[in-house]
Amino acid sequence: MPHYDLVIVGTGSGNSILDQRFADRKVAIVEKGVFGGTCLNVGCIPTKMFVYPADLAAAPAEAKRLGADLELRGVRWREIRDRVFGRIDPIADGGLRYRLDHPDNDGVTVYQGEGRFTGHKELAVTLPHGEETLTADEFVLAAGGRATVPDVPGLAEVGYHTSDTVMRIDELPPRAIILGSGFISAEFAHVLGSFGVDVTIVARSGALLRTEDDDVSLRFTELASRRFDVRLNRASVRARRTSAGVALDLRGPGGDETVEAELLLVATGRRPNSDLLDVAATGVATSPSGHVVVDEYQRTSVEGIYALGDLSSWYELKHVANHEARVVQHNLLHPEDPIAADHRFVPHAVFTSPQIASVGLTERDAAARGIRYVSAVQDYADIAYGWAMEDTSGFAKLIAEEGTGKLLGAHIIGPQAPTLLQPLIQAMSFGLDARSMAKGQYWIHPAMPELVENALLKLVGE
Ligand SMILES: Cc1cc2nc3c(=O)[nH]c(=O)nc-3n(C[C@H](O)[C@H](O)[C@H](O)COP(=O)(O)OP(=O)(O)OC[C@H]3O[C@@H](n4cnc5c(N)ncnc54)[C@H](O)[C@@H]3O)c2cc1C
Ligand SMILES: NC(=O)c1ccc[n+]([C@@H]2O[C@H](COP(=O)([O-])OP(=O)(O)OC[C@H]3O[C@@H](n4cnc5c(N)ncnc54)[C@H](O)[C@@H]3O)[C@@H](O)[C@H]2O)c1
Protein backbone atom coordinates (compact mmCIF):
# COMPACT_ATOMS: atom_id res chain seq x y z
CA MET A 1 0.00 0.00 0.00
CA PRO A 2 1.91 3.14 -1.17
CA HIS A 3 2.07 5.90 1.43
CA TYR A 4 2.34 9.58 0.48
CA ASP A 5 2.98 12.82 2.29
CA LEU A 6 0.13 14.36 0.35
CA VAL A 7 -2.66 13.09 -1.94
CA ILE A 8 -4.72 15.53 -4.02
CA VAL A 9 -8.04 14.27 -5.41
CA GLY A 10 -9.21 16.27 -8.44
CA THR A 11 -7.26 18.38 -10.94
CA GLY A 12 -9.52 21.42 -11.30
CA SER A 13 -8.31 24.04 -8.85
CA GLY A 14 -6.63 21.21 -6.92
CA ASN A 15 -4.01 20.96 -9.65
CA SER A 16 -2.79 24.50 -8.98
CA ILE A 17 -1.57 23.70 -5.46
CA LEU A 18 1.66 21.95 -6.34
CA ASP A 19 4.73 24.00 -7.16
CA GLN A 20 8.43 23.74 -6.44
CA ARG A 21 7.83 24.40 -2.74
CA PHE A 22 6.38 20.87 -2.58
CA ALA A 23 9.41 19.33 -4.33
CA ASP A 24 10.60 17.59 -1.16
CA ARG A 25 7.25 15.89 -0.59
CA LYS A 26 6.05 12.58 -1.95
CA VAL A 27 2.77 13.51 -3.64
CA ALA A 28 0.01 11.68 -5.53
CA ILE A 29 -2.62 13.28 -7.76
CA VAL A 30 -5.79 11.28 -8.42
CA GLU A 31 -7.99 12.25 -11.38
CA LYS A 32 -10.81 10.16 -12.80
CA GLY A 33 -11.57 12.37 -15.79
CA VAL A 34 -9.80 14.94 -17.91
CA PHE A 35 -7.03 17.06 -16.40
CA GLY A 36 -8.09 20.62 -15.60
CA GLY A 37 -11.57 19.84 -14.24
CA THR A 38 -14.93 21.43 -14.97
CA CYS A 39 -14.01 25.06 -15.66
CA LEU A 40 -11.44 24.31 -18.35
CA ASN A 41 -13.11 21.34 -20.02
CA VAL A 42 -16.89 21.68 -19.67
CA GLY A 43 -17.51 24.91 -17.75
CA CYS A 44 -16.42 28.55 -17.72
CA ILE A 45 -13.93 28.48 -20.57
CA PRO A 46 -15.77 26.62 -23.37
CA THR A 47 -19.09 28.30 -22.49
CA LYS A 48 -17.57 31.74 -22.82
CA MET A 49 -15.90 30.68 -26.07
CA PHE A 50 -19.42 29.99 -27.36
CA VAL A 51 -20.89 33.13 -25.76
CA TYR A 52 -18.53 35.44 -27.63
CA PRO A 53 -19.51 34.30 -31.16
CA ALA A 54 -23.13 34.22 -29.92
CA ASP A 55 -22.82 37.91 -29.00
CA LEU A 56 -21.53 38.59 -32.51
CA ALA A 57 -24.29 36.52 -34.11
CA ALA A 58 -26.89 38.47 -32.12
CA ALA A 59 -25.48 41.85 -33.17
CA PRO A 60 -27.53 42.41 -36.37
CA ALA A 61 -30.80 42.78 -34.45
CA GLU A 62 -29.24 45.39 -32.17
CA ALA A 63 -27.36 47.19 -34.96
CA LYS A 64 -30.46 47.52 -37.15
CA ARG A 65 -32.11 49.67 -34.48
CA LEU A 66 -29.22 52.12 -34.74
CA GLY A 67 -29.14 52.26 -38.52
CA ALA A 68 -26.39 49.76 -39.32
CA ASP A 69 -27.70 46.91 -41.43
CA LEU A 70 -25.70 43.80 -40.64
CA GLU A 71 -26.61 40.37 -41.85
CA LEU A 72 -26.00 37.02 -40.21
CA ARG A 73 -25.41 34.72 -43.14
CA GLY A 74 -24.87 31.60 -41.11
CA VAL A 75 -23.27 29.93 -38.12
CA ARG A 76 -20.68 27.26 -38.82
CA TRP A 77 -21.40 25.28 -35.67
CA ARG A 78 -18.99 22.41 -36.26
CA GLU A 79 -16.21 24.84 -37.02
CA ILE A 80 -16.94 26.83 -33.85
CA ARG A 81 -17.12 23.64 -31.78
CA ASP A 82 -13.90 22.26 -33.22
CA ARG A 83 -12.09 25.57 -32.77
CA VAL A 84 -13.21 25.74 -29.12
CA PHE A 85 -12.17 22.21 -28.23
CA GLY A 86 -9.18 22.30 -30.58
CA ARG A 87 -7.83 24.99 -28.24
CA ILE A 88 -9.00 23.48 -24.95
CA ASP A 89 -8.20 19.79 -25.35
CA PRO A 90 -4.43 20.34 -25.85
CA ILE A 91 -4.33 22.41 -22.64
CA ALA A 92 -5.92 19.56 -20.67
CA ASP A 93 -3.51 17.10 -22.27
CA GLY A 94 -0.55 19.44 -21.65
CA GLY A 95 -1.51 19.64 -17.95
CA LEU A 96 -1.47 15.86 -17.67
CA ARG A 97 1.81 15.52 -19.61
CA TYR A 98 3.44 18.16 -17.37
CA ARG A 99 2.61 16.18 -14.24
CA LEU A 100 3.61 12.86 -15.85
CA ASP A 101 6.81 13.79 -17.66
CA HIS A 102 8.32 17.06 -16.48
CA PRO A 103 11.28 16.92 -14.05
CA ASP A 104 9.44 19.53 -11.88
CA ASN A 105 7.15 16.65 -10.97
CA ASP A 106 9.70 13.96 -10.11
CA GLY A 107 8.10 13.63 -6.69
CA VAL A 108 4.57 13.41 -8.10
CA THR A 109 2.71 10.23 -9.07
CA VAL A 110 -0.44 10.59 -11.16
CA TYR A 111 -3.22 8.04 -10.72
CA GLN A 112 -5.68 8.23 -13.62
CA GLY A 113 -8.64 6.63 -11.91
CA GLU A 114 -11.52 7.17 -9.53
CA GLY A 115 -10.73 7.53 -5.83
CA ARG A 116 -13.03 6.32 -3.06
CA PHE A 117 -12.28 6.36 0.64
CA THR A 118 -12.38 2.93 2.25
CA GLY A 119 -11.12 3.85 5.73
CA HIS A 120 -9.35 6.51 7.76
CA LYS A 121 -7.01 8.32 5.33
CA GLU A 122 -7.21 5.29 3.04
CA LEU A 123 -8.18 5.92 -0.60
CA ALA A 124 -8.86 3.08 -3.06
CA VAL A 125 -8.26 4.12 -6.68
CA THR A 126 -9.87 2.19 -9.53
CA LEU A 127 -7.31 1.77 -12.29
CA PRO A 128 -7.44 -0.08 -15.63
CA HIS A 129 -5.34 -2.94 -14.21
CA GLY A 130 -7.22 -3.18 -10.89
CA GLU A 131 -7.51 -1.26 -7.67
CA GLU A 132 -4.73 0.35 -5.68
CA THR A 133 -5.08 1.75 -2.17
CA LEU A 134 -3.14 4.84 -1.15
CA THR A 135 -2.61 6.25 2.31
CA ALA A 136 -1.27 9.70 3.17
CA ASP A 137 -0.53 12.05 6.02
CA GLU A 138 -2.45 14.82 4.31
CA PHE A 139 -5.21 14.93 1.70
CA VAL A 140 -6.66 17.74 -0.38
CA LEU A 141 -10.18 16.94 -1.54
CA ALA A 142 -10.93 18.94 -4.69
CA ALA A 143 -13.33 16.55 -6.41
CA GLY A 144 -15.89 19.16 -7.49
CA GLY A 145 -19.50 18.35 -8.33
CA ARG A 146 -21.72 17.06 -11.09
CA ALA A 147 -24.96 17.97 -12.83
CA THR A 148 -28.12 16.78 -11.12
CA VAL A 149 -31.06 15.45 -13.10
CA PRO A 150 -34.57 15.70 -11.64
CA ASP A 151 -36.73 12.67 -11.16
CA VAL A 152 -39.11 13.24 -14.09
CA PRO A 153 -40.75 10.03 -15.36
CA GLY A 154 -39.36 9.05 -18.77
CA LEU A 155 -36.43 11.47 -18.65
CA ALA A 156 -33.79 8.77 -18.39
CA GLU A 157 -35.21 7.02 -21.47
CA VAL A 158 -35.66 9.98 -23.86
CA GLY A 159 -32.05 11.06 -24.08
CA TYR A 160 -31.07 14.47 -22.81
CA HIS A 161 -27.99 16.64 -22.62
CA THR A 162 -26.35 18.36 -19.69
CA SER A 163 -23.69 21.08 -19.89
CA ASP A 164 -21.14 18.22 -20.02
CA THR A 165 -22.34 17.03 -23.43
CA VAL A 166 -24.28 19.81 -25.16
CA MET A 167 -21.22 21.73 -26.32
CA ARG A 168 -19.97 18.75 -28.36
CA ILE A 169 -23.11 18.02 -30.41
CA ASP A 170 -22.61 17.54 -34.17
CA GLU A 171 -25.47 19.69 -35.45
CA LEU A 172 -27.48 22.53 -34.01
CA PRO A 173 -31.09 21.39 -33.57
CA PRO A 174 -33.94 23.50 -34.98
CA ARG A 175 -35.51 23.62 -31.47
CA ALA A 176 -34.24 23.12 -27.92
CA ILE A 177 -35.96 22.83 -24.56
CA ILE A 178 -33.94 23.98 -21.57
CA LEU A 179 -35.21 22.61 -18.27
CA GLY A 180 -34.13 24.90 -15.43
CA SER A 181 -33.75 28.65 -15.12
CA GLY A 182 -30.41 29.30 -13.47
CA PHE A 183 -26.95 30.27 -14.74
CA ILE A 184 -26.50 27.49 -17.28
CA SER A 185 -30.00 27.93 -18.67
CA ALA A 186 -29.49 31.70 -19.13
CA GLU A 187 -26.11 31.29 -20.83
CA PHE A 188 -27.10 28.42 -23.15
CA ALA A 189 -30.42 30.05 -24.10
CA HIS A 190 -28.37 33.02 -25.34
CA VAL A 191 -25.85 30.83 -27.19
CA LEU A 192 -28.38 28.53 -28.84
CA GLY A 193 -30.89 31.32 -29.51
CA SER A 194 -28.24 33.56 -31.12
CA PHE A 195 -27.16 30.67 -33.33
CA GLY A 196 -30.71 30.32 -34.67
CA VAL A 197 -32.20 27.62 -32.42
CA ASP A 198 -35.80 28.12 -31.22
CA VAL A 199 -35.42 27.94 -27.44
CA THR A 200 -38.08 27.06 -24.88
CA ILE A 201 -37.15 27.60 -21.24
CA VAL A 202 -39.11 25.61 -18.67
CA ALA A 203 -38.94 27.12 -15.18
CA ARG A 204 -40.31 25.65 -11.99
CA SER A 205 -40.65 29.06 -10.36
CA GLY A 206 -42.21 32.35 -11.43
CA ALA A 207 -39.01 34.03 -12.64
CA LEU A 208 -35.70 33.28 -14.35
CA LEU A 209 -32.46 33.70 -12.38
CA ARG A 210 -34.54 34.10 -9.26
CA THR A 211 -31.54 34.12 -6.89
CA GLU A 212 -30.55 37.51 -8.36
CA ASP A 213 -31.92 40.72 -6.86
CA ASP A 214 -35.68 40.75 -7.58
CA ASP A 215 -35.50 43.70 -9.99
CA VAL A 216 -32.70 42.07 -11.98
CA SER A 217 -34.50 38.74 -12.12
CA LEU A 218 -37.72 40.46 -13.19
CA ARG A 219 -35.99 42.49 -15.92
CA PHE A 220 -34.14 39.44 -17.24
CA THR A 221 -37.36 37.41 -17.26
CA GLU A 222 -39.11 40.16 -19.27
CA LEU A 223 -36.26 40.41 -21.79
CA ALA A 224 -35.80 36.65 -22.14
CA SER A 225 -39.55 36.23 -22.69
CA ARG A 226 -39.28 38.47 -25.77
CA ARG A 227 -36.54 36.27 -27.25
CA PHE A 228 -37.52 32.79 -26.11
CA ASP A 229 -40.63 30.78 -25.33
CA VAL A 230 -40.48 31.06 -21.53
CA ARG A 231 -42.79 28.82 -19.51
CA LEU A 232 -42.89 29.85 -15.85
CA ASN A 233 -44.41 28.04 -12.87
CA ARG A 234 -44.35 24.72 -14.71
CA ALA A 235 -44.01 21.26 -13.20
CA SER A 236 -42.46 18.65 -15.49
CA VAL A 237 -44.86 15.74 -15.48
CA ARG A 238 -43.33 13.36 -18.00
CA ALA A 239 -40.77 13.17 -20.80
CA ARG A 240 -41.55 11.23 -23.98
CA ARG A 241 -39.66 10.35 -27.12
CA THR A 242 -41.37 11.57 -30.31
CA SER A 243 -40.53 11.30 -34.00
CA ALA A 244 -39.01 14.82 -33.82
CA GLY A 245 -37.05 14.24 -30.63
CA VAL A 246 -38.37 14.87 -27.15
CA ALA A 247 -41.71 15.98 -25.72
CA LEU A 248 -42.03 17.30 -22.19
CA ASP A 249 -45.48 17.22 -20.63
CA LEU A 250 -45.93 20.15 -18.28
CA ARG A 251 -48.46 21.26 -15.71
CA GLY A 252 -48.84 24.99 -15.19
CA PRO A 253 -51.23 27.73 -14.16
CA GLY A 254 -53.18 27.26 -17.43
CA GLY A 255 -53.45 23.48 -17.11
CA ASP A 256 -51.60 20.72 -18.95
CA GLU A 257 -49.45 21.41 -22.01
CA THR A 258 -46.63 19.86 -24.00
CA VAL A 259 -43.45 21.35 -25.39
CA GLU A 260 -41.48 19.54 -28.06
CA ALA A 261 -37.98 19.88 -29.50
CA GLU A 262 -35.13 17.98 -31.09
CA LEU A 263 -32.84 18.60 -28.10
CA LEU A 264 -33.43 18.71 -24.34
CA LEU A 265 -30.85 20.37 -22.10
CA VAL A 266 -31.25 19.65 -18.40
CA ALA A 267 -29.79 22.52 -16.37
CA THR A 268 -31.24 22.03 -12.91
CA GLY A 269 -28.21 22.52 -10.70
CA ARG A 270 -25.19 20.58 -9.51
CA ARG A 271 -24.31 18.57 -6.42
CA PRO A 272 -20.96 17.88 -4.76
CA ASN A 273 -19.14 14.59 -5.42
CA SER A 274 -18.68 13.79 -1.71
CA ASP A 275 -20.96 10.74 -2.02
CA LEU A 276 -19.03 9.11 -4.87
CA LEU A 277 -15.75 9.86 -3.09
CA ASP A 278 -17.34 8.40 0.07
CA VAL A 279 -15.75 10.97 2.33
CA ALA A 280 -17.74 9.54 5.25
CA ALA A 281 -15.49 6.47 5.17
CA THR A 282 -12.56 8.63 6.26
CA GLY A 283 -14.71 10.45 8.82
CA VAL A 284 -15.10 13.72 6.89
CA ALA A 285 -18.38 15.45 7.76
CA THR A 286 -20.79 16.76 5.12
CA SER A 287 -23.77 19.14 5.25
CA PRO A 288 -27.30 18.04 4.26
CA SER A 289 -26.58 19.35 0.73
CA GLY A 290 -23.60 16.98 0.50
CA HIS A 291 -20.95 19.71 0.71
CA VAL A 292 -17.87 18.79 2.72
CA VAL A 293 -17.87 20.90 5.87
CA VAL A 294 -14.75 23.08 6.22
CA ASP A 295 -13.63 25.77 8.65
CA GLU A 296 -12.22 29.14 7.57
CA TYR A 297 -8.81 27.49 6.95
CA GLN A 298 -10.44 24.99 4.55
CA ARG A 299 -9.84 22.20 7.10
CA THR A 300 -12.36 19.37 7.21
CA SER A 301 -13.47 17.58 10.37
CA VAL A 302 -10.46 15.20 10.02
CA GLU A 303 -7.02 16.53 10.87
CA GLY A 304 -4.75 16.72 7.83
CA ILE A 305 -7.64 16.64 5.33
CA TYR A 306 -8.49 19.87 3.50
CA ALA A 307 -11.27 20.51 0.98
CA LEU A 308 -11.92 23.27 -1.54
CA GLY A 309 -14.04 24.36 -4.47
CA ASP A 310 -17.38 22.90 -5.52
CA LEU A 311 -16.94 19.92 -3.20
CA SER A 312 -17.19 22.15 -0.14
CA SER A 313 -18.44 25.52 -1.38
CA TRP A 314 -22.05 26.27 -2.27
CA TYR A 315 -20.84 29.22 -4.39
CA GLU A 316 -19.83 26.82 -7.18
CA LEU A 317 -17.63 29.45 -8.83
CA LYS A 318 -14.14 29.10 -10.27
CA HIS A 319 -12.72 32.24 -8.67
CA VAL A 320 -13.84 30.87 -5.28
CA ALA A 321 -12.26 27.46 -5.96
CA ASN A 322 -9.02 29.17 -7.02
CA HIS A 323 -8.98 31.41 -3.94
CA GLU A 324 -9.57 28.43 -1.67
CA ALA A 325 -6.81 26.48 -3.44
CA ARG A 326 -4.38 29.31 -2.62
CA VAL A 327 -5.50 29.19 1.02
CA VAL A 328 -4.99 25.41 1.16
CA GLN A 329 -1.60 25.76 -0.54
CA HIS A 330 -0.45 28.26 2.09
CA ASN A 331 -1.81 26.19 4.96
CA LEU A 332 -0.09 23.03 3.73
CA LEU A 333 3.20 24.92 3.53
CA HIS A 334 2.76 26.92 6.76
CA PRO A 335 0.54 24.93 9.12
CA GLU A 336 1.95 26.92 12.05
CA ASP A 337 0.70 30.19 10.51
CA PRO A 338 -2.53 29.38 8.64
CA ILE A 339 -4.55 31.91 6.65
CA ALA A 340 -8.33 32.04 6.42
CA ALA A 341 -10.40 32.09 3.24
CA ASP A 342 -12.11 35.40 2.51
CA HIS A 343 -15.74 34.89 1.53
CA ARG A 344 -16.97 38.36 2.47
CA PHE A 345 -17.70 39.71 -1.00
CA VAL A 346 -17.98 36.91 -3.55
CA PRO A 347 -19.16 38.25 -6.90
CA HIS A 348 -20.62 36.37 -9.83
CA ALA A 349 -21.56 37.13 -13.40
CA VAL A 350 -23.96 35.51 -15.83
CA PHE A 351 -22.70 35.72 -19.40
CA THR A 352 -26.08 35.87 -21.08
CA SER A 353 -27.71 38.78 -22.88
CA PRO A 354 -27.80 41.28 -21.38
CA GLN A 355 -24.92 40.45 -19.08
CA ILE A 356 -25.57 40.31 -15.35
CA ALA A 357 -23.17 40.79 -12.45
CA SER A 358 -23.68 40.92 -8.74
CA VAL A 359 -21.89 41.14 -5.40
CA GLY A 360 -23.10 41.28 -1.82
CA LEU A 361 -26.61 41.56 -0.48
CA THR A 362 -29.76 41.81 -2.58
CA GLU A 363 -32.57 44.03 -1.26
CA ARG A 364 -34.34 40.81 -0.31
CA ASP A 365 -31.32 39.70 1.77
CA ALA A 366 -30.97 43.11 3.44
CA ALA A 367 -34.66 43.20 4.37
CA ALA A 368 -34.58 39.60 5.65
CA ARG A 369 -31.64 40.48 7.91
CA GLY A 370 -33.44 43.52 9.26
CA ILE A 371 -30.69 45.84 8.01
CA ARG A 372 -31.57 49.54 7.66
CA TYR A 373 -30.43 50.24 4.12
CA VAL A 374 -30.78 52.72 1.30
CA SER A 375 -30.81 51.77 -2.38
CA ALA A 376 -30.46 53.57 -5.68
CA VAL A 377 -31.12 52.52 -9.26
CA GLN A 378 -29.32 54.11 -12.21
CA ASP A 379 -30.45 53.33 -15.76
CA TYR A 380 -27.88 52.98 -18.53
CA ALA A 381 -30.19 55.17 -20.62
CA ASP A 382 -29.44 58.14 -18.34
CA ILE A 383 -25.66 58.10 -18.56
CA ALA A 384 -23.92 59.41 -21.66
CA TYR A 385 -22.61 56.14 -23.09
CA GLY A 386 -25.81 54.22 -22.41
CA TRP A 387 -27.76 57.10 -23.96
CA ALA A 388 -25.53 56.93 -27.04
CA MET A 389 -26.22 53.20 -27.27
CA GLU A 390 -29.93 53.91 -26.82
CA ASP A 391 -29.99 51.18 -24.20
CA THR A 392 -33.52 50.74 -22.92
CA SER A 393 -33.28 47.98 -20.33
CA GLY A 394 -30.02 48.05 -18.38
CA PHE A 395 -29.53 49.39 -14.87
CA ALA A 396 -27.31 49.28 -11.82
CA LYS A 397 -28.77 48.92 -8.35
CA LEU A 398 -26.65 49.74 -5.31
CA ILE A 399 -27.48 49.01 -1.69
CA ALA A 400 -25.75 50.70 1.26
CA GLU A 401 -26.07 50.84 5.01
CA GLU A 402 -28.25 53.77 6.06
CA GLY A 403 -26.22 56.52 7.69
CA THR A 404 -22.70 55.23 6.97
CA GLY A 405 -22.95 54.73 3.20
CA LYS A 406 -21.11 51.43 3.57
CA LEU A 407 -21.76 49.48 0.38
CA LEU A 408 -23.64 46.24 1.02
CA GLY A 409 -24.54 45.07 -2.46
CA ALA A 410 -24.33 45.91 -6.15
CA HIS A 411 -26.33 44.42 -9.01
CA ILE A 412 -25.95 45.29 -12.68
CA ILE A 413 -27.83 44.09 -15.74
CA GLY A 414 -26.66 45.47 -19.07
CA PRO A 415 -23.67 45.77 -21.40
CA GLN A 416 -20.27 45.07 -19.75
CA ALA A 417 -21.94 44.36 -16.39
CA PRO A 418 -19.09 42.20 -14.96
CA THR A 419 -16.47 44.80 -15.89
CA LEU A 420 -18.56 47.62 -14.41
CA LEU A 421 -19.06 45.68 -11.19
CA GLN A 422 -15.34 45.18 -10.49
CA PRO A 423 -14.64 48.64 -8.97
CA LEU A 424 -17.60 48.11 -6.63
CA ILE A 425 -16.15 44.78 -5.51
CA GLN A 426 -12.90 46.61 -4.86
CA ALA A 427 -14.65 49.33 -2.86
CA MET A 428 -16.49 46.78 -0.72
CA SER A 429 -13.37 44.66 -0.18
CA PHE A 430 -11.31 47.64 0.94
CA GLY A 431 -14.04 49.38 2.93
CA LEU A 432 -14.49 52.41 0.68
CA ASP A 433 -17.85 54.10 1.39
CA ALA A 434 -20.20 55.24 -1.37
CA ARG A 435 -19.49 58.98 -1.02
CA SER A 436 -15.68 58.62 -1.02
CA MET A 437 -15.82 56.30 -3.99
CA ALA A 438 -18.08 58.64 -5.99
CA LYS A 439 -16.33 61.91 -5.20
CA GLY A 440 -12.75 60.96 -4.44
CA GLN A 441 -11.71 60.20 -8.03
CA TYR A 442 -12.22 61.23 -11.64
CA TRP A 443 -14.62 59.22 -13.78
CA ILE A 444 -13.78 59.16 -17.49
CA HIS A 445 -16.38 60.97 -19.53
CA PRO A 446 -18.36 59.75 -21.39
CA ALA A 447 -17.42 56.18 -20.51
CA MET A 448 -19.61 53.39 -19.20
CA PRO A 449 -18.32 53.52 -15.58
CA GLU A 450 -20.31 56.77 -15.23
CA LEU A 451 -23.15 54.32 -14.58
CA VAL A 452 -21.45 53.41 -11.30
CA GLU A 453 -20.57 57.04 -10.51
CA ASN A 454 -24.17 58.20 -10.98
CA ALA A 455 -25.59 55.26 -9.03
CA LEU A 456 -23.24 56.12 -6.14
CA LEU A 457 -24.21 59.81 -6.26
CA LYS A 458 -27.89 58.88 -6.15
CA LEU A 459 -27.22 56.57 -3.25
CA VAL A 460 -25.69 59.36 -1.19
CA GLY A 461 -28.46 61.76 -2.23
CA GLU A 462 -26.52 64.00 -4.64
C1 LIG B 1 -21.39 24.98 -17.79
C2 LIG B 1 -20.65 25.65 -16.66
C3 LIG B 1 -20.21 26.95 -16.79
C4 LIG B 1 -19.54 27.57 -15.73
N1 LIG B 1 -19.14 28.86 -15.89
C5 LIG B 1 -18.53 29.49 -14.87
C6 LIG B 1 -18.09 30.85 -15.00
O1 LIG B 1 -18.30 31.50 -16.03
N2 LIG B 1 -17.47 31.44 -13.96
C7 LIG B 1 -17.25 30.75 -12.79
O2 LIG B 1 -16.69 31.33 -11.85
N3 LIG B 1 -17.62 29.46 -12.64
C8 LIG B 1 -18.26 28.83 -13.65
N4 LIG B 1 -18.63 27.52 -13.50
C9 LIG B 1 -18.34 26.83 -12.23
C10 LIG B 1 -16.87 26.31 -12.22
O3 LIG B 1 -16.64 25.53 -13.35
C11 LIG B 1 -16.63 25.50 -10.95
O4 LIG B 1 -16.96 26.28 -9.82
C12 LIG B 1 -15.16 25.08 -10.82
O5 LIG B 1 -14.72 24.42 -11.97
C13 LIG B 1 -14.98 24.19 -9.60
O6 LIG B 1 -13.64 23.78 -9.51
P1 LIG B 1 -13.20 22.56 -8.58
O7 LIG B 1 -11.74 22.47 -8.67
O8 LIG B 1 -13.84 22.69 -7.26
O9 LIG B 1 -13.89 21.29 -9.25
P2 LIG B 1 -13.73 20.68 -10.70
O10 LIG B 1 -13.13 21.63 -11.65
O11 LIG B 1 -15.04 20.08 -11.03
O12 LIG B 1 -12.63 19.54 -10.52
C14 LIG B 1 -12.91 18.35 -9.87
C15 LIG B 1 -12.10 17.25 -10.51
O13 LIG B 1 -12.15 16.12 -9.66
C16 LIG B 1 -12.29 14.96 -10.45
N5 LIG B 1 -12.90 13.95 -9.58
C17 LIG B 1 -14.14 13.98 -9.05
N6 LIG B 1 -14.34 12.93 -8.26
C18 LIG B 1 -13.19 12.21 -8.29
C19 LIG B 1 -12.79 11.00 -7.69
N7 LIG B 1 -13.60 10.32 -6.88
N8 LIG B 1 -11.57 10.52 -7.97
C20 LIG B 1 -10.74 11.21 -8.80
N9 LIG B 1 -11.06 12.36 -9.39
C21 LIG B 1 -12.27 12.85 -9.14
C22 LIG B 1 -13.15 15.40 -11.62
O14 LIG B 1 -12.97 14.55 -12.74
C23 LIG B 1 -12.64 16.82 -11.86
O15 LIG B 1 -11.60 16.83 -12.82
C24 LIG B 1 -19.30 26.86 -14.54
C25 LIG B 1 -19.73 25.53 -14.40
C26 LIG B 1 -20.40 24.93 -15.45
C27 LIG B 1 -20.87 23.50 -15.29
N1 LIG C 1 -21.23 32.42 -15.17
C1 LIG C 1 -21.06 31.59 -14.16
O1 LIG C 1 -20.42 31.89 -13.15
C2 LIG C 1 -21.66 30.21 -14.25
C3 LIG C 1 -22.20 29.74 -15.44
C4 LIG C 1 -22.76 28.47 -15.46
C5 LIG C 1 -22.76 27.69 -14.31
N2 LIG C 1 -22.21 28.18 -13.17
C6 LIG C 1 -22.22 27.39 -11.93
O2 LIG C 1 -22.75 26.11 -12.16
C7 LIG C 1 -23.75 25.85 -11.22
C8 LIG C 1 -24.83 25.02 -11.87
O3 LIG C 1 -25.58 25.81 -12.81
P1 LIG C 1 -27.13 25.53 -13.03
O4 LIG C 1 -27.67 26.55 -13.94
O5 LIG C 1 -27.32 24.10 -13.35
O6 LIG C 1 -27.68 25.69 -11.54
P2 LIG C 1 -28.46 26.89 -10.82
O7 LIG C 1 -28.48 26.52 -9.40
O8 LIG C 1 -27.97 28.22 -11.24
O9 LIG C 1 -29.93 26.77 -11.43
C9 LIG C 1 -30.66 25.59 -11.32
C10 LIG C 1 -32.07 25.86 -11.81
O10 LIG C 1 -32.78 24.64 -11.93
C11 LIG C 1 -34.04 24.79 -11.30
N3 LIG C 1 -34.47 23.46 -10.88
C12 LIG C 1 -33.97 22.70 -9.91
N4 LIG C 1 -34.62 21.53 -9.84
C13 LIG C 1 -35.56 21.57 -10.82
C14 LIG C 1 -36.57 20.67 -11.26
N5 LIG C 1 -36.75 19.51 -10.66
N6 LIG C 1 -37.35 21.04 -12.30
C15 LIG C 1 -37.18 22.24 -12.90
N7 LIG C 1 -36.26 23.14 -12.51
C16 LIG C 1 -35.46 22.80 -11.50
C17 LIG C 1 -33.81 25.78 -10.19
O11 LIG C 1 -35.01 26.37 -9.79
C18 LIG C 1 -32.87 26.75 -10.88
O12 LIG C 1 -33.58 27.66 -11.66
C19 LIG C 1 -24.26 27.19 -10.72
O13 LIG C 1 -24.55 27.14 -9.35
C20 LIG C 1 -23.15 28.14 -10.99
O14 LIG C 1 -22.48 28.52 -9.83
C21 LIG C 1 -21.66 29.42 -13.12
From TrEMBL:
Coiled coil: none annotated. Its cofactor is FAD. FAD binds at residues 48, 115, 310. Pfam families: Pyr_redox_2 (PF07992), Pyr_redox_dim (PF02852). Keywords: Disulfide bond, FAD, Flavoprotein, NAD, NADP, Nucleotide-binding, Oxidoreductase, Redox-active center. One of its GO terms (molecular function) is oxidoreductase activity, acting on a sulfur group of donors, NAD(P) as acceptor. NAD(+) binds at residues 180-187, 269. Residues 4-325 form the FAD/NAD(P)-binding domain. Disulfide bonds join 39-44. Residues 346-455 form the Pyridine nucleotide-disulphide oxidoreductase dimerisation domain. The active site is at residue 445. Binds 1 FAD per subunit. Belongs to the class-I pyridine nucleotide-disulfide oxidoreductase family. This is Mycothione reductase.
